[in-house]
Amino acid sequence: MVLPEEFAALAERHRAELRVHCYRMLGSFHEAEDLVQETLLRAWKNRDGFQGRSTPRAWLYRIATNACLDVLDSSARRVLPYDLNGPGGALPSRTDIPWLQPFPDRCAPRDAEPDSVAVARETIELAFLAALQHLPPRQRAALILGDVLGWPAKQTAALLESSVASVNSALQRARETMREHLPARREDWAASPERESAVLRRYMDAMERADLAGLAEVLADEVRTAMPPWPMWLQGRDSVLAALAASWDTGSASYIGRFRMLATRANFQPAVATYVRRVGDTAFQPFAVSVLRVAEDRIAEVTAFHDLDLFPAFALPEHR
After folding, report:
1. Same domain? 14 vs 162
2. Do residues 185 and 220 make contact, with C-beta atoms less than 8 angstroms apart?
3. Rounded to an integer, what distance in angstroms lies between the CA atom of residue 193 and that of residue 189?
4. 25, 168, 261, 273: which has the fewest C-beta neighbours closer than 10 Å?
5. Same domain, 34 and 98
6. In sequence order, which residues have a C-beta less than 8 Å from that of residue 142 and are 6 or more positions away?
7. Which of 178, 121, 145, 127 is nearest to 69 (CA)?
8. Per-residue pLDDT of the chain (320 residues; tens, 9 = 90+)
9. How far is 130 from 113, CA to CA, in rounded Å?
10. Residue 173 sits in the same domain as residue 222
């Protein structure tokens, strides 16, 4: 029998990596948090059924995967705005679409944690998460278990209550779909943390000073920006700068206010928390958490999540 103190230690040892696993499965940080709790509750209730035929980690991953599949079988896939329509257009907010969410780096497993599965950057980037959402639930599980976690097909088949042949077929189809939806030259994205930080500082400085010329220097020609929960997205430096010019023009109906930025990290990518001071405000209030993709010392993509519930998840201050 698993004693309470033994189970508590087991849960704490694997909580962070289970959160990442559930996040990959669901595409939602908040739902991943809930599913980790559900996993540990199911594990505790069924602790006497653990016979030691697998490792405790594999046992918890089995429970977590099945809990996520239960959710996915009854929910729509998560998207980003560019999954819905072309760039530009109106800016209506949407609350009926399950948007992808960012994952705070602070919640990922630390290298010092014993027995934790290392999280490879490319398997938690937003682009990878967005591509995963195009897979049916069991193909998604097969790909994550097989290609990300390195489980053998026999072990994956046992978890999914399927055959090895079926799992191998699902993996092949999943890999083809991922190739279709992952951006080209993804392997060239990685830059040193120092270079990413330098680009981020230039971006933050230009945004705080409402400096369009400075921003033009740091944005890639074909930069893409998205702003969930609004389905509109923009493609190209000129389009992005035109939208920002309107939002910074005090005489425009589109005027938002002045920004203050705070660096953070999400999905193993540079990110920034944006605070806004609108007309009449005395302090800068939470506005968005943006995840950036840097390529060749330019910002190639900005996804600004206008979800204020993310600020506590990132341990960000309430105002600036």
Report:
1. yes
2. no
3. 12
4. 168
5. yes
6. 156, 160, 167, 170, 171, 174
7. 145
8. 566 788 888 888 899 999 999 999 999 999 999 999 999 999 989 887 776 677 888 999 999 999 999 999 988 889 999 888 889 866 677 778 899 999 999 999 876 455 556 688 889 999 999 999 999 999 999 999 999 999 999 999 999 999 999 999 999 999 999 999 998 766 666 677 889 999 999 999 999 999 999 999 999 999 999 999 998 899 999 999 999 999 998 888 778 999 999 999 999 999 999 999 998 888 999 999 999 999 989 999 999 999 999 999 999 999 88
9. 28
10. no
Query: In DSSP terms, which residues pair with 276 in a beta bridge?
Result: 259, 285
Residue ending a domain, choose from 181, 197, 212: 181
Domain assignment present for 144? yes
Name 261's bridge partners. Answer: 274
Q: Which residues pair with 124 in a beta bridge?
A: none
Query: Which of 198, 244, 231, 214 lies closest to 94, judged by CA?
Result: 231
Instruction: Report how many domains make up the chain.
Output: 2
Tokens 């027995």 identify what position? 115
DSSP string of 56-109? HHHHHHHHHHHHHHHHHTTSPPPB-GGGTS-SS------SSS-B----BGGGSP
Q: Which two tokens stand for residue 37?
A: 């709790």
Residues 110 and 249 in one domain: no
pTM: 0.92
| Domain coverage including residue 101 | 4-181
Beta partners for residue 227, in sequence order: 230
